[in-house]
Amino acid sequence: MYHVIARATASTPFSYLWVAPRVLAAQMRWLAHHHYHVVSLQEVHDYWHGAPLPSRPIVVSFDDGFRNHLSKAMPILDRHSWEGTFNLALSHYARGWGLGPKAIHRLLNHDWELDSHTMTHTTLPGLSAGDLRYQIGHSRARLRRLFHVPVDFFCYPAGAYDSRVISVVRAAGYQGATSTENGLARWNDPWTLDRVRINNGDGVSGLAAHLRALGLPG
Fold it and tell me: Which of 76, 78, 177, 200 could share a disulfide with 154, CB 3.0–4.6 Å?
């Protein structure tokens, strides 16, 4: 799980969410060297239902929808013939620092997977039923209408969810949803899929340590 792909400075807000492009590039080289293969969340879901996957599959996801997902992350993944998964909050769409329509189409043309991260990146538990449908169901419908792709997975803002939120995600037609809980995504828990957060300062050794702590090779 990545967020901003840019170099943070001493005054950068939420600097822990920033990963420098050179660090991302080194981490992707480490994954390739250790025979990991980046796949989409859809490919993982399909594997759980009988489709094949390459050895050591791993999803590389980018939350929110920053322009540097295109300008910095995509070229890095391209070097390995890999495609990322990006979770777009529509409040970021077409802003100065957010992905616009041309940028999103470029990512889609490089086979990146587009998933929903709500309309306004708001905390979901406690919202009314109508607001939940707007944030969850309407965001999927709008992304499908704008970009003509399935948008079959959802990402909880700040990893916040409860049983009401999950029920609306399921009713909206998603196939699964990602959390911010640390761990491995599992077939029997598709509505709160664990991920591994990569923070500023982790570097290659931090990525390796995260994966090894979960019993993965490297």
Answer: 177
